[in-house]
Amino acid sequence: MASVLVVEDDQFVRSALIRHLTEASHTVRSVGTALEALREVAHFRFDVVILDLGLPDLDGSEALKMLRGITDVPVIIATARDDEAEIVRLLNDGADDYLTKPFSVEHLSARMAAVLRRAGAGGGAAEAPLSRVIQVGGLSIDPLRRQAQLDGTALDLTRREFDLLAFLAGRPGVVVPRKELLAEVWQQSYGDDQTIDVHLSWLRRKLGETAAKPRYLHTLRGVGVKLEPPQ
After folding, report:
1. How far is CA 179 from CA 80, 121, 173, 185, in A?
2. For residues 26 and 3, what is the distance between their CA atoms, to the nearest angstrom?
């Protein structure tokens, strides 16, 4: 059972989501505006937020940025927009997943379950090396404390960035197929490679490198990704 905040101004859609989530034994609170959502997140603890983009007081993409300023709670975007550039921007702004309307309750349940698995403490190879600090070149990663440093300087990583980095660092020099990353880091048997590319881009930026001039993260087109110390 999860604590869910539904941010949706369409009363019909909102009622349907509340009914479905409640029937699935989740605890649900709901609001119809971005400002109400910010107040809810500031005062209550949620396991996941379902955020509509077409809110009456503030565009959902701006609300997402504001939410990310105060909480790391997983956010699933619910949108009628299917523009690829906007979806990439939303992922860059901190969305954990997105659903394009209309979507089935089964699809929502599957996405929620995947997001909650990633956010929780339950299994997954990304958490395997809990008993030791991983050292790869100047990278030091402590999975137990969920802390990472580069050349002695702490890295400010999101939850997903840390999981991806820790998973790759636990297999230095090994090319990891994208399907394996989706299965082990994202806990999904299928998905869009774009999600991996976005998070790799974030990681590269924080590691002070680029895809054109990699130091630690190397992408082998059509094969996968590997992390290894600089030569």
Report:
1. 27, 22, 18, 10
2. 6
- One-letter amino acid at 11 equals Q
Residue 9, CA atoms < 13 Å, CB-side half-sphere: 14
Token output for 65: 């940025």
Average pLDDT, stretch 22-48?
90
**All residues at 6 or more sequence positions from 30 whose CB lies less than 8 Å from its CB, including other chains:** 5, 6, 7, 8, 14, 17, 18
Strand partners, 7: 31, 51
Burial class (CB within 10 angstroms; exposed 0-12, middle 13-18, buried 19+) of 101: middle
Integer Cα distance of 77 and 63 in angstroms: 11
- Average the pLDDT over 118-131 and give the result: 46
